Hints:
The structure holds three protein chains of three kinds.
Chain A lengths: L1 H9 L6 H17 L5 H28 L6 H22 L14 H31 L4 H23 L14 E3 L3 E3 L1 H23 L1 H11 L1 H6 L4 H27 L6 H4 L1 H11 L4 H18 L8 H15 L10
Antiparallel strand pairs in A: 1-2
Helix pairs in contact in A: 2-13, 3-7, 3-8, 3-10, 3-12, 3-13, 4-5, 4-6, 4-10, 5-6, 5-10, 7-8, 7-10, 8-10, 12-13, 12-14, 13-14
Chain B lengths: L2 H31 L7 H15 L33 H25 L4 H21 L1 H4 L5 E2 L14 H25 L1 H11 L1 H6 L4 H27 L1 E2 L6 H15 L4 H18 L9 H18 L26
Antiparallel strand pairs in B: 1-2
Chain C lengths: L2 E10 L2 E11 L4 E5 L6 H9 L6 E6 L2 E2 L5 H6 L2 E4 L11 H8 L4 H14 L16 H13 L5 E5 L7 H16 L3 E6 L3 H5 L3 E6 L2 E7 H6 L1 H7 L3
Parallel strand pairs in C: 3-8, 3-9, 6-7, 7-8
Antiparallel strand pairs in C: 1-2, 1-4, 4-5, 9-10
Helix pairs in contact in C: 3-5, 5-6
Amino acid sequence: MATLKQVARWVPSHWGAGHLVLAGFLALLVLAVSPVIKLDLVVNGLFLGAIIGLGAIGLSLVYGILKFAHIGHGDFMTLGAYFALFLLSDLFPRIGLTGAGLGPFTFGYPLLLALPLAMLAMAVVAIALDLGIYRRLRRRGVNPVVLAMASLGVAIALRGVVQIFWGGGTEQYPRVSKLFYRLPMDVRIPPDNLFVGGLTVVLVVALYLFLTRSKMGKAMRATSDNPDLARVSGINTEHILWWTWAIGGALAATAGVLLAVSQAQLVPIMGWRLLIPLFAAVILGGIGNPFGALVGGLIIGVTSEISTQWLNPSYKPAMAFLVMIIMLLFRPRGLFGAKD
Amino acid sequence: MDIIGNLDYNIAFVVVAAIYAVFALGLNVHWGYAGLFNIGIAGFFALGAYTSALLTKASADPRLFEDFKFGGNLAASFEGIPVVGSLDLWFVVALLGAAAVCAVVALGIGFLTLRLRGDYLAIATLGIAESIRLVFLNEKWLANGSKGLYNIPRFLGDVVAPRNYDYLFLVVVLVVLAILYLAVERITKSPWGRVLRAIREDETTAAASGKNVFKFKLQAFILGAAIMGIGGALFAYNVRFLSPLTFDPLLATFIIWAMLMVGGSGNNKGAILGAFIVWGVWTRTQFLPRFLGEPEFRLFLIGFIIVAVMLLRPGGILGEGRKVSRPAWQQKTASPET
Amino acid sequence: MLLEVCDLDAGYGQTQILHGVSIRVDEREIVTIIGPNGSGKSTLLKAITGVVRPTAGRVVFGSDSIAGLSPDRIVRKGISYVPQTENVFPSLTIQENLEMGAFLRRDLGRERLPRIYEMFPDLVSKRGDRASRLSGGQRQMLALARALMLDPTLLLLDEPSAGLAPMMVDGVFDKIAEINQTGVAILIVEQKARRSLQQSHRGYVLATGQTRLEDTGERLLANPEVRRLYLGG
Lengths: 340, 338, 233
């Protein structure tokens, strides 16, 4: 931990950029010190971590700005993934849009259309839920834990909606199987993971630019820092909340679609099962710090993959939980959080 | 359906509803009185059920188990435990053991998270529930893995004819529920309970007036978890079969939240009433026509009930009773008010 | 008259803190409100800026009634507010903090920025640093600078000297006088108010949510009872 603190101190003060540097550094460190660890697990853990990270970024933004633990976030992912499924297997084929196996990937170009539509849909759903439920509770001046409670109800209801429309079974996007890339040192990468990695980089850079360059992005950070001061500065915090939900919902949808692509299946419980890794990533990165959440996601992804070398793979969520507990013990404000 | 069949159905209904009422009482100690947000009830549920099953005396058929070390026969190694007449003390041991194990686990989680902000507890309880489920699923030596434990002996063994077991167990469950209700009622009306509510309303003021907030919260968390452990034990003696799949968050966590919200958190009678109402709705709706009776729709319904109660009637049916204090949902806060 | 507060009631939830407070601030005036801890001084400022919703009474600014408006609409009318603590955005840079001060009018903000840096030259070299790195005195200066970005006609300051070293306190009050010279009226709330009253045109004593006394700054300083009760002898 001491080393981490020192590293964090070298990091340039500019919001986020340094954290990405640190992420790479940590990953290299893990590789360098441990010849016993299979490189394959580390690499594929990073891809899993990118998916967790995308979900966690939105969760962290919501947590930082609305100040409550949004338990429905995992089910936002699920709903986003199933919405894309509806487009890919129902709507698009009716208008003649079909296909799979685009280039090296298992999916076809319709997915590239379905993804932004799913993002948009989840952004709308997230804002609508805020207007219908969370805002009404906020105006009553309730305690944040009550908002978290309401979001538990939302999580359950959303999963119910998914099951009403698609049943409880396993589904798949239209796909054709592809060979894994074989790299030296026994590293095998499913081609779809390149898409996961590339899209994550694009979205994170876009978010970084939004948060540091645009007026609305800066105002979001300001509101996360200090909502009361933001309001007396003339920032309409209601609009900020809409932006926050929109970004959180869209990123959750992306994470959900990518999870469905990389695991080659959709089940209604997929998002709920990821809730612990999501929160672990958020706490690791420090609540309200989106780039911290990404780094947290990568760390969680890699550690839970590596753990499969010694433990039954089904213990992965428990690994994420363990990392989170260790974090809460030693640095409850996260890797990059202020000192207590 | 003939009259006897109908009666049996109703008895089975009351037994399950009363077991859920025990959980709702435990959750009421957590949420209603102490404002502790536990979404890992399933963890304590499973822990209580498995503990009591492993502690029961009679052995199950060893051929049914492969890697399982205990074979439901852990208790057989303690020959010294008395059986007074036909009174099976092992049942009491199993109940108390379940409570004790849950209390110890709650002590651990509470110690780690209760000093931190409130919603960390929620995440930690969720994590521990999932971890407990994974342990029971993967560690075959402990609890026979996904095949589960079966033939958990009946209370009093074969003293009562198996076909009349439900009548006997109904009495047992109602007695346990009554004892727990009176105990929780008494504890929450005591000075200790008042301090707890003061903390829930305004932690800073309570701390400023010299109360050890952490200690009180920890005690409340342990108490609620122990009650849930007893609920788990009763459940095990009722269904007499346990598998990790039994402890799905829907039927082991969410529905209990819906029960407490509907009945009225902060009110022990409300918790019990809510358990009967929600379990009634749950069991009756399976006879609804078409998709309304499907489990998918009922899952949605549980979530919808929780949100609707919070928005429309935050006090539930009974509410907190005498308005001596502000309930959890009206606490003063620093959240962004817009 | 620039600001007039009449018989104002306000509080948090069911706890009423202000009971019929009346004060006024004239144009280009510095007014200080003194009073013990818990007398409702901060609540009064929050009620004027709309952070706390008044339950009764009038707040008139210029010719508009502003009681019950949202904070962003009140800011737009020309009232800026500097809270006592947490009055900067710690994870934002100095420059970004100032930009947030002009969130409502980016055009005006661009125009004002050079002028503000001129007034607060110490901030120029730190414009790219996060506000969390500033010292207490610098942070207070940044808070003032942020509040001035929209060119307000009235500035509300909640205990600007709280927690500062004595040397810094002088710097802050010199800066307040300088701001006042540019034509901005200033309403200050202070617990240890000697320094503040010295440079105020008028002052009020607030106790248990009610206005007790009103007088010029000098005469309040000279009043033996005020000295005994609120100025520490």
